[in-house]
Amino acid sequence: MRRYSQITIAIHWLTALLVVAAWFTAEGGRHARADPPYLHFTLGLAVLLLVVPRLLARWLGAAPRVEDPQSRWMDLAARAGHTVLYLFLIALPLSGWYAASRLGIQVSFLGLDLPALAAPVQGAPGLIADLHETGGTLILWLAGAHALIAIWHQFVMKDGTLERMNPLTANDLAESRE
Ligand code: HEM
Ligand code: HEM
Known about the structure:
2 strands, Fumarate Reductase Cytochrome B subunit, binds protoporphyrin IX containing FE
């Protein structure tokens, strides 16, 4: 059984927690302008920060290929699904940062002021902000479907998929690359 590296497993579960927490702390439209949800910004930006070492670790071989995948289309579908999740993990924080800039809100991360990604506007913050709001909820549905598929693999197909992401039985990077 090939597992993900410890660092990838830690980042996977931390990211999942941060995404859910970002969703719970989100504020839309007028509320966001009057009383900016700074905690939402911090949680969301942490997602963006964590995706960088995670993708690097992936390129360095910390994402084990499925040994003997049960079918080629299933392997491809899993890769496509994970790619979509990664795209959301990058696009959501960036579009939120853009939306905050359009609303004229200063975005900072752990006390560090970040530059605005767009000039502030008086009215509605625009299409990208709308996409951010919709995408912010869509990622939870996608992650829910992803979790159900992982559970189905584990208990119906019995191929040990959940074990690959189990923090309690994590191997180190070297072992996972054996
Ligand atoms: C917001 C929540 C979540 C996000 C954004 C997310 C994202 C991801 C991504 C991007 C990968 C691909 C890793 C890679 O190969 O580079 C992955 C793998 C995985 N995730 Fe999640 N995940 C979430 C929640 C969950 C939950 C709740 C479960 C379990 C119930 C789960 C189980 C797994 C498993 C088992 C793998 C490894 C799949 C494999 O071996 O191919 N994830 N996740
Ligand atoms: C994984 C990360 C994120 C998720 C899941 C997420 C989710 C959401 C959701 C669901 C909403 C809509 C809330 C509502 O309508 O009541 C929202 C709004 C908003 N988010 Fe995020 N967000 C994330 C990251 C960020 C980041 C990093 C920033 C800024 C740095 C940000 C800034 C905003 C702003 C300004 C709004 C209001 C947009 C508007 O009124 O048009 N978000 N977010």
